[in-house]
Amino acid sequence: MIRTARDDSRPAIDSFREECGIFGVFGTENASAIAALGLHALQHRGQEAAGIVSFDGNQFFAHRAQGRVGDSFGSGKVIGMLPGNAAIGHNRYSTSGTKTQLRDIQPIFAEIAQGGVAIAHNGNLTNARTLKRDLVQRGCIFQSTMDTEVIVHLIATASGPTFLDRLIEALHQVEGAYSLIALSETGVIGARDPNGVRPLVLGELHGQAVLASETCAFDIIGAKFKRSVAPGEIVHIGRDGVRSLPGALGRAPRTFCIFEYIYFARPDSVVEGKNVYAVRQQIGRLLARDAPADADIVVPVPDSGVPAGLGYADQAGLPFELGIIRNHYVGRTFIEPTDEIRHLGVRLKHNVNADAIDGKRIVLVDDSIVRGTTSTKIVEMLRTNGAREVHMRIASPPTTHPCYYGVDTPERKELIAAQMDENAIAAKIGADSLRFVRLESLFEAVHGGQPNGKRMPYCAACFTGDYPIELIDDMHVELPLLLEET
Ligand code: AMP
After folding, report:
1. What is the dihedral of CA 423, 439, 201, 19, to 10 degrees?
2. How far apart, in whole angstroms, are the C-alpha atoms of residue 263 and residue 267?
3. Which of 217, 237, 259, 472 is most buried, judged by most C-beta within 10 A?
4. Is 20 one of the annotated active-site residues of the chain?
5. Which residues neighbour 235 within 8 Å (Cβ) at sequence distance 6 or greater?
6. C-beta of 350 in contact with ligand 1 (< 6 A)
7. For the chain, which domains are there?
8. Ligand 1 neighbour 93 (Cβ under 6 A)
C-alpha cells in the first residue's frame, strides 16, 4: 500500500527511530570478540552507543555502553565478561534531540516462557505506538523507548510453542522497516521485513554462519559473504546449521532504501548485490552529465562526497583535488544530538586545504543536502580561503520528505529542498550555482535505468513523498506519545 505522508511537519515521533548496525554470530569461539570487531566495522551506522549479548549454552551475558565500540569493547576485560559461542551486537545511532540512556541501548534482553532472548534491531516500525498503546492496555510494562521492546512484548504474549514460532507471530503484527537479529538459547535468528527496506547479509566464518547489516563487517573478521537475507525471509542459525524460511514474514513489493547507496552504507560494502563505491561513482558521472559546470577543479566534501566527486571529475575531465580535509576523530555531523553541537561539529570536522583551491573555480560535490548547514559553512570556508567560484553539485535528488523507515532526517520544514528551488538554495548557502542529480539518473546509476512504467524496487520516499509502507502511527496522531523519552 502506498501512502503519502501528511504534508505538514512530522509528529514528534523522532525519539524512537532507530538506525543502526547489527551483527550476530553462532557456533564460534570468541563470539563476543568477533561481534565487537563486526560492530567496529559498522561504526558508521551508529556511534552513540553499542551493546553485545552473548550466550554460553547456559547463561546470557550483556554489556552496553555509550560511545564507540573500541572504547567500550576494545579491552580484553570486557570481552572476557561476555563468554560463549554465540553473540549478537548493536550500534546505536541516536536521532537529533535525544540523549541515549542506558535503558535504550540494544540488544534488549528478556526472559520469556522459552527462556532468555536478546534482540537487536535496525529500522523503524510505523505502528509501534499503536501496538504499544494496545499492549499497555493489556497490562504490559515498558522500560525503554525502543521499538524493539514492542517486539519483545509481542513475542512474550504470542501463543506459538517455540521462540521461532512466536517471533514470526510477533513480526506479522508489526509494520515498517526492520532488519533484526535475535539470540535465543537455541540459536541466532536473522529477519528482514517483507519490503526489505534495511539491509541484512549472511556470511560464513570457519564454516559457521554470521549475520550483519553490511558486508564490511565480514571483511574485518575474514568471513565470506554468502548472500543478502531476502525480504520477508527468516534465517535460523543453530546447531544443525542454517535453516531458511523464505517469505515467512509475508511478501510485498521490494523497496530497498536507496539512501543506503547514497549515504548510509560504507562504500566498500556490497549492498543488494552492488558495490556501493561503484554506484556512488556512477551517480557522480551522471551528475556531471545532468549538471555540468564551467570550473577548474572538482572538490568533494569528505568523506560522503568523495566517490561521487571522483565520478564527476572523471566524466567532466576535470582534476580532482582534496580541497577540504576532514578530521577523522569527529563523528558524523548529524550524529551529534543537538543543533548547537551540530553547528560546532561542522567547524570541528572540516578544514580547507587553501593551496589546492586558491584562485580556482570549484565544483563542490556532496552526496546530499539536508538542512544546508554543512554546505553553508563549507562554501564560506572555500571563499574565505581564495576560491573564485563555488558550484555545488549534489549526488542525490532534493531531499524533500522525512524518512519514517529509519534514516535520520529532520521534519519537512527543516529540509531546505522542501522549502526552496535550486537557485534559492544556492543563494542561501552562498554558492554561485547549485544542482541536484535527477531521480531518473539516480535510478540509472543504482539499477541501470527504470524499466518502462515499472515501479523501481527502491524506497525513494525522501525524494518523492511516496511512502511504500503504511504510516499507521502517523495516521493516528492523537495517540499519546507513549514511547517518548521522559
Ligand atoms: P547539510 O549541508 O547541513 O544539509 O548537511 C549535508 C551533509 O549531511 C552531507 O554531507 C551528508 O553526507 C550528511 N547527511 C545526509 N543525511 C544524513 C543523515 N541521515 N545522517 C547524518 N548525516 C547525513
Report:
1. 40
2. 9
3. 217
4. yes
5. 189, 190, 191, 202, 209, 211, 229, 242, 243, 244, 245
6. no
7. 2-255 (3.60.20.10), 271-327+335-464 (3.40.50.2020)
8. no
The answer to whether 174 touches 151, Cβ cutoff 8 Å, is yes
Contact 423, 275 (CB under 8 A): no
Three-state SS string across the chain, please?
CCEECCCCCCCCCHHHCEEEEEEEEECCCCHHHHHHHHHHHCHHHCCCEEEEEEECCCCEEEEEEECCHHHHHCCHHHHHCCCCCEEEEEEEECCCCCCCCHHHCCCEEEEECCEEEEEEEEEEECCHHHHHHHHHHCCCCCCCCCHHHHHHHHHHCCCCCCHHHHHHHHHCCCCEEEEEEEECCCEEEEEECCCCCCCCEEEEECCEEEEECCCHHHHHHCCEEEEECCCCCEEEEECCEEEEECCCCCCCCCCEECHHHHHHCCCCCEECCEEHHHHHHHHHHHHHHHCCCCCCEEEECCCCCHHHHHHHHHHHCCCECCCEEECCCCCCHHHCCCHHHHHHHHHHHEEECHHHHCCCEEEEEECCCCCCHHHHHHHHHHHHCCCCEEEEEECCCCCCCCCCCCCCCCCHHHCHHHHCCHHHHHHHHCCCEEEECCHHHHHHHHHCCCCCCCCCCEECHHHHCEECCCCCHHHCCCCCCCCCCC
Distances (CA, A) of 282 to 300, 306, 318, 369, 477: 15, 12, 16, 19, 41
Residue 19 has pLDDT above 90, yes or no: no
Q: What is the mean pLDDT of residues 375-383?
A: 95
**What's the distance, CA 354 to chain centroid?**
33
User: Percentage of the chain with pLDDT > 70?
Assistant: 89
What is the best residue among 43, 91, 96, 263 to mutate for testing ligand 1's pocket, by most ligand atoms within 8 Å of CB?
263
**Band (477; pLDDT cuts 50, 70, 90):** very low
Q: Does residue 126 have its Cβ closer than 6 Å to ligand 1?
A: no
**Cβ of 369 below 6 Å from ligand 1:** yes
Ligand 1 centre to CA of 263 (Å) is 8
Residue 28 CB less than 6 A away from ligand 1: no
* Closest to 375 in 3D by CA, of 402, 400, 343: 343
Q: Tell me which amino acid residue 384 is.
A: T
Given a cut of 60, whether residue 331 has pLDDT beyond it is no
> Is 0.85 topped by the overall pTM?
yes
Alpha-carbon gap, residue 216 to 267, rounded angstroms: 9
Residue 174 scores a pLDDT above 70: yes
